[in-house]
Design goal:
Blueprint lengths: L1 E7 L4 E7 L5 E2 L8 E6 L5 E5 L4 E4 L7 E3 L8 E6 L5 E5 L8 E4 L7 E2 L6 E8 L5 E7 L5 E6 L7 E3 L7 E6 L5 E5 L3 E4 L7 E2 L6 E6 L5 E5 L3 E5 L7 E5 L4 E6 L5 E5 L4 E4 L7 E3 L7 E6 L5 E5 L4 E4 L8 E7 L4 E3 L4 E8 L7 E15 L5 E7 L2 E7 L8 E6 L16 E3 L15 E9 L6 E14 L4 E4 L7 E2 L10 E8 L3 E8 L5 E10 L2 E8 L11 E9 L2 E10 L2
Parallel strand pairs: 37-38
Antiparallel strand pairs: 1-2, 2-31, 3-30, 4-5, 5-6, 6-7, 8-9, 9-10, 10-11, 12-13, 13-14, 14-15, 16-17, 17-18, 18-19, 20-21, 21-22, 22-23, 24-25, 25-26, 26-27, 28-29, 29-30, 31-40, 32-40, 33-39, 34-37, 34-40, 35-36, 35-39, 41-46, 42-43, 43-46, 44-45, 44-47, 47-48
Length: 569
Amino acid sequence: MKKIILTILIINTIFIFEDCMSQWVQQSSGTTTYLYSIHFEDDLTGWATGSSALIKKTTNGGVNWFTQTSGQPFGSFNSVFFVDLNTGWIVGDQVYDSTLILKTTNGGNNWSLQKVGGSKIFYDSYFINQSTGWAIGMSSSTYNGLIYKTTNGGVNWFMQTIDQTGRFLSCFFLNENTGWVGGQSSFAKTTNGGTYWDTISTALVSNGLYFVDPLIGFMAENSSKIYKTTDGGFTWNVSYSGSGTISSIHFINPATGYACGVQGKVFKTTNTGISWAVQTTPITSNLNSIFFVSPMVGYTASSGGIILKTTNGGEQTSFYQIIHRYNINKPIVSGQNTLDTINIVNNGEAIGYTQDINVYLDTIFNAVNSDLEIMMIHQGVTDTVVYRVGGSGSNFFRTVLNDSASTPIEGGVSPFIGQYRPSRPLAKFNNLLVDGSWILKIYNRTKNLSGVIKSWGIAVSYSPYIGVRTIQNIIPDICMLYQNYPNPFNPTTNIKYQITDTKLVTLKVFDLLGREITTLVNEIQKPGMYETQFSSNTITGNQLPSGIYFYSLFVEGIKTDTKRLVLLK
């Protein structure tokens, strides 16, 4: 766990932020061999390959990995690709006098060697179906790029002509006609299955490719960048820039994609590469391959036989903030309310949803504590946490209120040092946005007696606001798009909707001219109520101007409703 302490002396407030490492869990792979590639066919069944002719398979989502044998005594198994649970291929380096292409038709129980001649090294492959696929790499004698294709499941492989000298490291195909290959200062595209390749001049080194449609694609590049194309690969622009190699990239839908690379880093986008979030993992070695079977469930492989898995998109499950206010010295006056506020802000962006809260009454002096009613107010919700307790005693000192405490505050004795259960549960604030003002309100009901509040604080654990949030899992009767809130907004607003069936759901924002601004949601969702967020600050890196915009809900590509939102700066 990482802890960052920020002390702001000007307002006598101390913030302590804690965040957990992204939810990538190391699996027991049973090997320390270097892993190059990982591929899954469903939530349970996947393969990982590496050096020393290593093949690992799981049939229970990575709980256990067992070794499969190929019959090859050695070799570098650079890439593994399956088209179904039974049929797959492995490509790699030379074994004796033959370039390595292995095929299985029974899920890897047996592998047969497919010969395409010697003096070749294959780094990647892609198959459209059981018959048609490509293997790409280089000649081990001339180091020129090579593309081989099969149309009969690998019984025969033939070389496709291409005018490129650099070796090819990655490939991706949308269908039998349209595909791309990239590598070391080499890139090419075909629209006729490889009969002809358009060579595209580039200085980029493509470690991984993924296209979400014929125009929009992404490249994991060797020099610490993720590149994006919107014209089918003819021009590339930086989508993310960091430090170190980006090794692999994979998209689960047009909006949501993941990449991996140097020092155990994973990179995630939920808006088609407009922005990328960096996730840390339990390891610091370079990640070589990444594969997701759904927007939440994914795997990545590294050296030392390391395989990591996430079941929540790699996001932190919770964050924690402790905020104290000191040297307040506000009087508690008889018959009046005393208010003090702690603000939790994040530059206008939503932080997350409250999971649990503790209230700290660090120092409150009052002649008779039983005269005090202490309340918390947040997001329009008021909760009485202390109601006229303490008898004739006085003072709260280092008092902590939390719902899990065994002793109720009514059972305590002044000055209430320690942990107590509040008069009313603090769970009342759960699932509210943590952002905004947390107000401590003290009412002194007795005449002619006064006191002072010197210090207090709160500790909030919360789930981060990321992407689409499920509000309810019940099955609604109708499909509905709700009005955004707040509206007008600046810069962030929330959009809620509900669907009745498991279908492809798309939520888009448009300007007054009908031009698409962004896609907020584009994934298959189960019946239920959902909420997501739209921010004017995250659109193509620029801030949107004030004005009227529209958002539309599509189900299976059919527009169901459109509503208006107003950005007012």
